[in-house]
Specification:
Shape: globular
CATH topology of the largest domain: Rossmann fold
Number of helices: 11
CATH architecture of the largest domain: 3-Layer(aba) Sandwich
Helix content: 25-40%
Length: about 300
């Protein structure tokens, strides 16, 4: 169980349930992206101090306080043992992404700009004749970044997302793009069908990310390149505490604790330990780059270590 200073994680959870204003305070701190201030907050934190009657300052928290309070009061939202399996309900996640499809690009375009997507594509080290599968292609925002000399297959289990990806593909007539409605935990392609794989913000929103990774290794050729861009449990302990406390909100409401993101736009596991999952299968990490000051989003290049 993660501990900061003299307090255990369950003590932070209890404080949150007894003093909902504690969530407002840490949501505001999180948005500031100031690690020094965040660490100072935890160093001087006294959970015996009553947070109630403190003025609320975080706009998203004020707008959704009742829902946040309901979620964090649920005993099942903070399991003692972290398990990724069945964390996100399929039908709930599909409903959220179908609802969010039309606004998804507008909300996230500034967060993951074209230059960053080019870097993600560069990490695939693409060559003429490569066959790529993007697992969780979404609205197809990465399609433009792939070179014309590759064959790209994009899968997603949200039809509205795929419809929007299809519109983007029509505007890229020189690219070889195939889009399929498919569950990433049960990819309907034979073994070794692709030599390059991209998973872009897919594992964190999957009910069983380990199973997705196993499917990725199966359809990817031995020694093939696998690039993952995703949310990850931060190595900064103070941030990891916040990710854990945000977990039920991210699970049910998406990135509500970010000022620019409306509720119910995405839903995901904010405490996903991707590296622990990679150690359980034949995926070898080659290089890693952190994309934010809190080290909560990583770009990871891997090699498929399976034998034929």
């Amino acid at each position: 169980m993660l501990q900061i200073g003299k307090y255990r994680m369950d003590e932070f959870v209890n404080c949150l349930r007894e003093n909902p204003e504690f969530m407002d305070r840490i949501m505001t701190l999180y948005n500031n992206f100031d690690i020094q201030v965040l660490r100072q907050f935890f160093e001087t934190l006294d959970l015996s101090t009553v947070f109630s009657h403190t003025a609320l300052t975080h706009r998203r928290y004020v707008e959704n306080k009742l829902e946040i309070d309901r979620l964090t009061a649920d005993p099942d939202t903070y399991p003692q043992e972290i398990s990724n399996k069945d964390y996100l309900n399929d039908q709930y996640t599909k409903r959220i992404y179908n609802k969010a499809a039309e606004i998804y690009d507008g909300v996230w375009a500034g967060v993951w700009p074209y230059e960053m997507r080019n870097e993600v594509a560069d990490w695939l080290e693409l060559k003429p004749g490569d066959r790529i599968i993007e697992v969780g292609v979404g609205t197809g925002t990465n399609l433009e970044s792939f070179p014309d000399f590759c064959e790209v297959t994009g899968i997603d289990y949200c039809q509205k997302m795929l419809d929007m990806a299809g519109e983007k593909a029509k505007r890229l007539p020189n690219k070889k793009v195939i889009l399929e409605l498919m569950d990433a935990t049960d990819i309907a392609f034979p073994d070794n069908s692709f030599n390059k794989v991209l998973s872009f913000y897919t594992l964190c929103s999957s009910r069983d990310p380990l199973k997705v990774l196993k499917e990725i290794t199966r359809v990817c050729q031995p020694e093939g390149t696998i690039v993952i861009f995703d949310v990850i449990k931060s190595e900064i302990e103070e941030v990891a505490v916040l990710q854990y406390l945000f977990r039920p909100i991210a699970r049910q409401m998406g990135a509500i604790y970010l000022e620019f993101c409306p509720p119910y736009n995405t839903t995901y596991d904010s405490f996903l330990n991707i590296f622990a999952l990679l150690k359980r299968i034949d995926i070898q990490v080659n290089k890693v780059k952190t994309s934010d000051p809190y080290k909560t989003v990583n770009l990871i290049q891997c090699i498929n270590g399976k034998s034929r």
